[in-house]
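Appendix B. Chain record.
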Amino acid sequence: MTAPASTKVSERRADAPLRKISFGLPPVNITHRADGTIDIKPSLPLGDYPVRLTDRLHHWADTKPDRIFMAERDGDGWRTITYRELLATSRRIASALLARKLSAERPLLILSGNSIDHALMAFGALYAGVPYSPVSPAYSLISQDFGKLAHIVKLLTPGLIYADDGGAFAPAIKSVIPDDLEIVLSRGEIAGRTVTSLNEVIATPESTVLDAAHAAIGPETIAKFLLTSGSTGMPKAVPNTQRMICANQIMIRDTMAFLKDEPPVIVDWLPWNHTFGGNHNVGLTLFNGGSIYLDDGKPTPVGIAGTVRNLREIAPTVYFNVPKGYESLLPFLRDDKVLRKTFFSRLHAMFFSGAVLADHVWRSLDEIAVEETGYRVPMLTGLGATETSPYFMSPSPETSRSGHVGLPVPGNDMKLVPNNGKLELFSKGPSVMPGYWRQPELNVKAFDEEGYYRFGDALRPADPDNLHAGFDFDGRVTEDFKLASGTWVSVGPLRAKFVAATAPLVRDVVIAGLNREELAALVILDPDGCRLINPALAAGDLKAIAADPAVRKAFRDRLAQFVRTATGSSTRIRRAILLNTPLSIDAGEITDKGSVNQRAVLEHRAAVVESLYFAAPVEEAIVIDMA
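Structure tokens predicted for this chain:
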């Protein structure tokens, strides 16, 4: 985007009104301790929440039985399931799971991605009071050694495995799943294994003990095991109790109060093995009697076509995505009038999470919304974690911006503890996990002596003179390090500034420099952004992209400008290398959701880091002369 256009957008964004939505974010009570710790508690208590999530399923099956709960693509149309159908099918699957004597010690393991069949198995487990665990499909379909899947199976000791496609998951199942463990498939077979079809499970007659089993589900019953992304090692299993999930849904509904105004309709691809897609989005759909359309697209050059197709047909009332998703959708919203009209026709709000939304993307979305509707659509964000179910903090629509996480929502207490010049975040509330499953040694570090969960994130006041104005994200405290001079490097904010300064070429960056005189960068390129510089490049050829003269020049120019803005050694990065091989999920360099493990990359690519500090730089390095 050119400078004049950017200025124009910024002016329009400032002048255009913001669409008014119902939003409940009460004030907070703030107290200061003698040791510098800051306690922050919402002034209003959390409202009542149901005992079990399936109580809401019963409610909607009784009051709106024929409303679509979920839909997925089926050729040119949609396969749908109503609330009445979901309840009936869940009861039969629950009966089948009870007959197999599954439990927290022998849970259901779901290997596949989002689908109605996945949802049916999950809700059957919820209804029976049997925990289930949705596992990232990447651990079965992308991994070469199945190491993380093997770790998960050993940790959880499942009693039943579900996969949608026997052919696709056969290699992982044969490698990792014990021969005597029952496999349920929607389709296909696995050579050498006896499998049960999902249709057979669905045909199970209702058990005479089903109603009693459902009534026995209580607040502390484990609903699911969500697996951390493994950004600091192997995945950990987070027990999500009924209390955690139900309390968190009240937090979401009472804060994003517009969800009460009409049943939400969402078009969503976010994976259910993560808390954002599986807890937050599926949960708010069920809790508020809405409809979720499963988006078979993805924020990639090829996958975005599916998302556009779906959004041309289904108008969301609230839209959730990651920053890359909005960036990929932006040119289509700009150029496709039918898409734009449908998308904004009943849109109350948008929401992003997982990374920083670039300011130029945000401004452009505002401009398009104003052109179509006459107002800006609120863009919301916040802060949460798998361990907090996830909703924990939120800004208001008026204060929302990238990097600003706001204040804790009702039900969540937080404290900020001084840590090497930063304020480290700790949390307590009914949606915080009781502790990692079967790894008690981790809980010693995860909780403090007052029972607060340690986020591992740092926050800083948006206004140091007014803490009621909320807080900004200040990076992961475990990522920060010292230079040889003893100067602390705040990695999180520096990464965000680096990516913004080198946009659209860079997806992420790994910062090196522990005990060194100066910083260096291992750069993860964004192939889509690089192809804007040279459209002739093939998206999948990372070696060619990293070596392309036009890309290297464009990056060098941006890096040189970034160096000129540095305020000292802790923010100056003048040495960089464009990585020409993909990050490895098996080596732990990248998680299944695309998050970069800084420590693993630095360890796995130690030789690359060392080469950046040679007196005579290697040919691949880009070094900005300070002269």
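Further analysis of this model is presented in Appendix C.
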